[in-house]
Amino acid sequence: MNASPSHQPHPAEWTETQSLLPRVERDLPAGRHQFHKEQLMARIHEDLRTTTRPDPPKRRTNPFLRRTVLLPAAALALAGAVAGGFALSSGDPHGGRTALATGPALTTTVGAADAEGAPRLLDRISLAAADTTTPTPREGQYIYIESKVASTYTSSVGDTTSVVSEELHPRQVWNSLDGKDGWLIEPGQTGDEGVTLASEVVMSGAYDVLATLPTDPDALLRRIYRESDATRDHEVPRDQAAFVAIGDLLSESYPPAGVSAALYKAAAKIPGVVAVDDAVDATGRHGVAIAREDDTGERTEWIFDKKTLRFLGERVVVVKAVEDSPFEVGTVVFTSAITQRAVVDANKQVPGGAS
Amino acid sequence: MRVGDPDAFAELFDECARAVYNHAFRLTADWSAAKDVMATTFMEAWRRRDTVDAEGGTLRPWLLGIATNVARSHHRGDRRYRAAASAAAAAMEDVEDHAEATAGRVDDRRTLQATLTALSLLKRPEREVLTLCLHEGMAYAEAARVLGIPVGTVRSRLSRARGRLRRLTDAQLLREKREPTPANRQTQDDRGCAVRSAQEGNR
């Protein structure tokens, strides 16, 4: 927490009042700074292009916008696409950007949830994870994750509000081991060349961070709650935030086998976690899922191959009708499928390329 | 800024979002409302960019003035502020029960609760000048300008706010949350205003 502001010192006499009215500051919840900044910038660019000032579009909170890595791309895409009325292709100020088509909202059959089966399934998933071989990257190398993703959002054109989904599109992410450097390419959301992920804020799923996590599930869970409590959006219930935090560490990252195994065991101890008998990842692969429903009727599902129990992807599904929400039960709010994980020698290097 | 340079606004957001968020929290006692106020403030700032002083200088006071106005729509009455403050304090207790908070976090929580308690005893106009002048370190004249009120009014509101807060020194609540009286503690007279005014003249 910051102490007093530096731009103007207080007269000494204010010390007394200050002792009564101390200064404690908080950071914005994780991801919110970037999210609101991008909403602002989307609005500004839209205003500059049209010189009219429409009301900002109302969109619902995408739980994935809290994530450090997903955030820049997703928020830009949603804010940009909605505010820009889908006019991303021509006259776009950023140039070199491939527009992303949208279509009817993605829907799915909601799988049956089984709370009692969750610990057993997670135990099996954990054992399978412990049994895999994961690479040990060398200093200077990058983690490369390729996935297919799509988001769903409400789109307002004139007085009409409808729910639309993006076409499924590839997403490529590079991250340095320390989590301070990286690159993201996601059509329609970053330009075709991509954007840098270089930041002083270390990504939560950075390899170096993962490699130093405790592998005792109880200690690990305590640490996850502690870190999540410090940064979570206070609108998000505590257990849900912890569950999502674990998902962030597991999905767009390449944790050592022992750490993955421990993360699954830790997840089994979070109240409200369920096993789901059937779930489909973004590329259509069916599997079983470990999931948790939040207080807004959305369920976050981690999808695993039925036989090998390998992590396939993650999605968020509306499982309960919410009054006044245009999202119907069965709507897939966000979906992703991991298609490749690799260690590469440099930022922006694709596996199998120069080595 | 006045001509609507997007980069300038991006920079302004990076510099001031946190400050606006915390300022909004002090005015609403509600983190969620503070987030909304923060987002609306920047949209408003963009819309009202032609009201920025042409001579330049820091835009922080201008922004905090807008935030103060935006925040007013979020608390309609002192009773509601007090309710929000109690709720925010209770939410902090709640986290405390479950988490293994470090000593530093416990301190921050207590300090924040003490701040909320103090602020909830003030009237909205007093709260506004106090947070601008004390927390944000604004000069009286600057606070007067961003709030659109005379300097004398800023001074009298502050004086009243400080008077109210001073009466709190004996309140059980604050006593148990503060460290023993610091050695450098000043005497309780009103020289603060005089010194402050002199300084204000230099700006």
Description:
The complex is a heterodimer of chains A (355) and B (203). Chain A has eight helices and twelve strands. Chain A is an alpha+beta fold. Chain A has one domain. In chain A, a hairpin with a 5-residue loop joins strand 5 (169-176) and strand 6 (182-185). In chain A, helix 2 (32-50) packs parallel to helix 3 (70-83), helix 6 packs across helix 7 (238-250) and helix 6 (217-231) crosses helix 8. Chain A is globular and about 55 Å long. Chain B contains ten helices and no strands. The longest helix of chain B has 23 residues, at 6-28. Residues 172-203 of chain B have low confidence and may be disordered. At the A-B interface, helix 1, helix 2 and helix 6 of A face helix 1, helix 2, helix 4, helix 5 and helix 6 of B.
Give a short overview.
In chain A, 27% of the residues lie in helices and 24% in strands. Chain A has 355 residues and is of the alpha+beta class.
Give the arrangement of secondary structure elements.
The complex is a heterodimer of chains A (355) and B (203).
Chain A (H helix, E strand, L loop, with lengths): L13 H7 L11 H19 L19 H14 L18 E3 L8 E2 L3 H13 L11 E16 L2 E7 L2 E8 L5 E4 L9 E2 L10 H5 L5 H15 L6 H13 L6 H11 L5 E8 L5 E8 L4 E7 L6 E8 L13 E13 L11
Antiparallel strand pairs in A: 1-4, 2-8, 3-4, 3-5, 3-12, 5-6, 6-7, 8-9, 9-10, 10-11, 11-12
Chain B lengths: L5 H23 L2 H17 L12 H13 L5 H21 L4 H18 L3 H12 L4 H8 L3 H16 L5 H6 L13 H11 L2
